[in-house]
Design brief:
five-stranded antiparallel beta sheet; Agglutinin, subunit A; about 800 residues; disulfide bond; disordered N terminus; single chain; about 25% strand; binds 2-acetamido-2-deoxy-beta-D-glucopyranose; Kinase-like_dom_sf; alpha+beta
């Protein structure tokens, strides 16, 4: 009988559905929405309707941006796909229940209801919130009968609160074609101090870092005025997190199918989504990447080390870069006869597996308390507020510790070690580093006076250390005399030329028979003033990274402008990669190290240095190798010197090399970190294949190396791309991952390319789930007629195809 009534209701709905005005923002109970109709919010921001994601045939009810319909932010029936879809309807009952009805079955229901006598309506708001409310009530969250913001999917929109309710939090889609609840979630965790956690099933994947009183300690990015989330606390518990709604800035936080948390904003001008950040961002962000008592430092190679006083538990695995086993104490603790603590600065605190928090204890009390309990392994201030406050103690393993460059100096961790170990460390430091002041090490021997003496000593030392650093800041870049350089290079003889770049020739030189240098003699086209040039060089000299060539100084006299670099023994990467005889020196493990090194150098230039530097001419011949074949990027910063009169986003003078340039840069002069990512992708493919993109030819097609890689990818035989001279010495999964990442880097549209931090993450993480690449951006080479209004000047040396395109249009 109930069924009969129901069919009656359907017929009733059908009869009245004609009155629904497609594109309105309100649905009344006497109306329905069919598959061809949508609700559109008042200012046309969001749209609600039935859709099929990607290549799926299934139908879902969802909300998406009107301007970018492929960006779906919420799905009602995500776990109830509609596989057959003759008569699909969305309707609101007079009792305030929203139902999706297919034929005679309710596929999905909001299960909401209100008291009799009121007039419910369904309203799609400009915030993206779908609400059921009384028509007479104002638009106010507390008066909603039901609203979609209470049921987050994979996207957090501004105004939407993630709460401690176990059902709250983001859950990823299964795949891009299947919105049902996937393996990943993003939730508030109040175990110990509050933090946000991305989980994979039951296991953790990424932790934001604990709340330190000001922000989530994993990174000051939480302080960004635009993206700083609003957090509500109940005592010391975090009960909700949300983003502030601002009508003039569209933004969203998405947990994607591979478990990456991604923050996007839309610029009003071009309706493009910009990826602001991704978490996890690098391998060190992977939960417990270095195992128990390990510490992850992204700037080092290898990135995992044991905490001081610890050694690898399984040495063999550790040396093979399987760090999951972690570390063990070198010497056991000696609880009764005295343990002490070693200070570790600027770290993301270890996970709180077993812990104790007491907000009313000072750091001293905390230390004493930790020392008095033999199972306490570390302590720290809980908050950084008031110069450090509260006490946090760990018991048992210290897991997921990572170094955070730029972390608050109050965020220090004190790790328990036996006194014998601490003394050893002190001795070692003094031997290795006589001139450098000793780091503050607290050894608690139970004698309070000694502690106080030590602490005040430490303060003096610290102050001195601070002064020294400040002095370094003023350090001027050495200015070389022209005469010195002339002598060193044998008056710039042709024999000493070791390369030719986009900005001028490079000479090898010898300073007073001792130190070897490389001299870059800049062509006189920079158009930059002398002071400006000097300032720029001084700035660039401060960029220091193991994967960047070191700038030693410069020479400015008359018209001459030269940059003096360290000389590198082993020439450049192209010298090895393409040459049949030398290539055997670069077997796969070395090639992979080189790839990672280049990626780290580029990441440093893009994100981690004080200047944001876009290289603009990354290519194999710009990667130099030192005696151990470590890669060092050269020519960085030159683009900055030559480009300072141009706007950041677009240049009239395109400096670069065909075969490596991203389409938008080569054609429109638009450059960004993403154009460097493109060049990196090309370099990566060249290293894997041992072939040049530009000179590539194949008997069966006319594509370049990128095109060839794409064809092989589509046919699922990418291993055919691998340099045959590698003789199967490679790890298949690693090579495949490299090729996939390379294809992602050379995507046609900049927004589809990953940023360098993601590249490093994807390359360095075994088993990472990578997005599927689409067709790469082909660049039509040398079609001179296509370059309207542009003059190309190619340098004499045809091997070095560096070009400059000068815009002839009047400025
Ligand atoms: C549907 O209901 C709304 C509000 O209750 C009313 O304004 C509208 O006239 C109704 N339409 C029809 C066709 O009954
Ligand atoms: C609304 O609720 C009343 C009382 O619970 C019930 O009798 C009626 O069937 C409901 N109507 C619909 C359309 O669900
Ligand atoms: C509504 O209730 C039904 C039956 O209890 C349940 O299966 C369904 O999951 C609920 N729907 C939602 C959206 O919670
Ligand atoms: C929403 O309604 C509640 C209760 O009616 C009221 O206390 C609150 O101030 C309202 N909030 C806004 C933003 O209007
Ligand atoms: C309007 O919302 C308030 C809650 O803020 C609720 O108490 C009241 O019943 C609502 N009015 C109607 C007519 O439903
Ligand atoms: C909203 O965003 C705009 C543009 O970013 C900004 O100028 C404005 O100050 C913001 N408004 C608020 C209330 O934050
Ligand atoms: C926190 O520390 C204070 C001072 O040592 C102590 O009095 C208090 O009992 C501690 N609180 C808890 C919950 O352990
Ligand atoms: C040490 O601390 C742990 C955790 O609070 C506690 O369970 C244990 O009883 C303490 N041991 C001693 C000897 O106080």
């Amino acid at each position: 009988m109930a069924r009969f009534e129901f069919i009656g209701a359907i017929l009733y709905l059908f009869f009245h559905s004609l009155t629904f005005l497609n594109g309105a923002d309100i649905l009344f109970p006497n109306q329905t929405i069919s598959t061809a109709q949508t609700l559109i919010s008042q200012n046309q921001v969001f749209e609600l309707g039935f859709f099929s994601p990607g290549s799926s045939q299934n139908k879902f009810l969802g909300i998406w941006y009107k301007k970018t319909p492929d960006v779906v932010v919420w799905v009602a029936n995500r776990n109830n796909p509609i596989t057959y879809s003759q008569k699909l309807l969305l309707s609101l009952t007079i009792n305030g229940t929203l139902n999706i009805i297919s034929e005679t079955t309710i596929i999905w229901s909001s299960n909401s209801s209100l008291l009799l006598g009121s007039n419910p309506v369904l309203h799609l708001l400009d915030t993206g919130n779908l609400v059921i409310k009384d028509i007479n009530n104002v638009t106010n969250q507390s008066s909603f009968i039901w609203h979609s913001f209470d049921y987050p999917g994979d996207t957090r929109l501004p105004g939407m609160k993630l709460t401690i309710n176990p059902d709250s939090g983001l859950t990823s889609w299964k795949t891009a074609n299947d919105p049902s609840v996937g393996d990943f979630s993003y939730k508030i965790e109040n175990q110990g101090l509050p933090e946000m956690v991305v989980s994979h099933g039951k296991g953790k994947r990424w932790r934001s870092g604990t709340w330190n009183g000001l922000y989530l300690s994993g990174g000051p990015w939480f302080l960004d005025p635009i993206f700083r989330p609003e957090m509500i606390f109940d005592g010391y518990k975090l009960i909700s997190v949300s983003d502030t709604y601002n009508a003039s800035l569209l933004q969203r936080l998405k947990l994607d199918e591979s478990g990456f948390l991604q923050r996007y904003t839309m610029s009003e001008k071009n309706n493009n989504w910009n990826l602001v950040y991704t978490k996890p961002r690098d391998p060190c962000d992977n939960y417990a990447h270095c195992g128990p008592y390990g510490i992850c430092r992204i700037e080092r190679a290898p990135i995992c080390e044991c905490l001081s006083g610890f050694e690898p538990k399984f040495r063999q695995d550790w040396d093979l870069q399987d760090w999951s086993g972690g570390c063990d104490r070198i010497r056991p603790l000696n609880c009764l006869n005295g343990d002490g603590f070693l200070e570790v600065k600027g770290v993301k605190f270890p996970d709180m597996l077993e812990f104790l928090v007491n907000m009313s204890m000072s750091l001293y009390e905390c230390e004493a308390e930790c020392l008095s309990n033999c199972s306490c392994t570390a302590y720290a201030n809980a908050y950084i507020t008031n110069g450090g406050s509260g006490c946090l103690m760990w018991f048992g393993s210290l897991v997921d510790t990572r170094e955070l460059p730029g972390a608050d100096s109050r965020q220090n961790l004190y790790i328990r070690l036996p006194v014998s170990e601490l003394e050893l460390r002190t001795d070692l430091k003094e031997k290795n580093n006589k001139r450098r002041p000793r780091k503050l090490i607290l050894i608690l021997t139970g004698c309070g006076v000694l502690v106080i003496v030590l602490i005040s000593c430490g303060m003096v030392i610290r102050r001195r250390l601070g002064r020294k650093e400040r002095k370094d800041e003023d350090l001027e870049l050495p200015l070389f005399k022209l005469a010195t350089i002339v002598a060193a290079t044998n008056n710039f003889t042709a024999e000493n030329v070791i390369g030719e770049g986009g900005f001028g020739p490079v000479y090898r030189g010898n300073l007073s028979g001792e130190e070897e240098i490389a001299v870059k003699r800049l062509s006189r086209t920079s158009g930059q003033g002398l002071e400006e040039f000097k300032n720029e060089v001084i700035l660039i000299a401060k960029l220091q990274h193991r994967n960047l060539v070191r700038l030693l100084g410069c020479c400015i006299e008359g018209e001459e402008r030269m940059l003096i670099y360290e000389y590198l023994e082993n020439k450049s990467l192209d010298y090895f990669v393409y040459d049949g005889n030398r290539t055997t020196m670069l077997m796969w493990p070395k090639r992979f190290d080189i790839i990672m090194g280049i990626a780290r150098g580029l990441l440093y230039l893009h994100h981690d240095s004080r200047l944001k530097v876009i290289h603009r001419d990354l290519k194999t011949s710009n990667i130099l190798l030192d005696t151990d074949l470590n890669p060092k990027i050269s020519d960085f910063g030159l683009a900055r010197i030559f480009g300072s009169d141009q706007t950041i986003a677009r240049t009239k003078r395109v400096v670069g090399t065909y075969g490596y340039m991203a389409p938008e840069y080569a054609v429109d002069g638009k450059f960004s970190v993403k154009s460097d990512v493109f060049s990196f992708g090309v370099v990566l493919l060249e290293i894997v294949s041992g072939k040049k993109n530009r000179d590539f030819d194949h008997s069966e097609h006319y594509h370049n190396l990128l095109g060839h890689a794409w064809l092989l990818w589509k046919e699922n035989r990418v291993l055919d791309l691998v340099d045959e001279r590698l003789n199967d010495s490679f790890v298949e999964s690693q090579v495949k991952r490299c090729i996939q990442v390379a294809l992602l880097c050379v995507q046609k549209f900049a927004e589809n390319r990953p940023v360098m931090s993601s590249v490093i993450f994807m390359l360095g993480t075994d088993g990472a789930i990578l997005p599927e690449p689409m067709e790469p951006g082909f660049f039509v080479e040398r079609s001179s007629s296509a370059n309207r209004g542009r003059r190309m000047s190619t340098s004499k040396d045809s091997e070095q195809t560096t070009i400059t395109i000068t815009d002839l249009e009047p400025r």
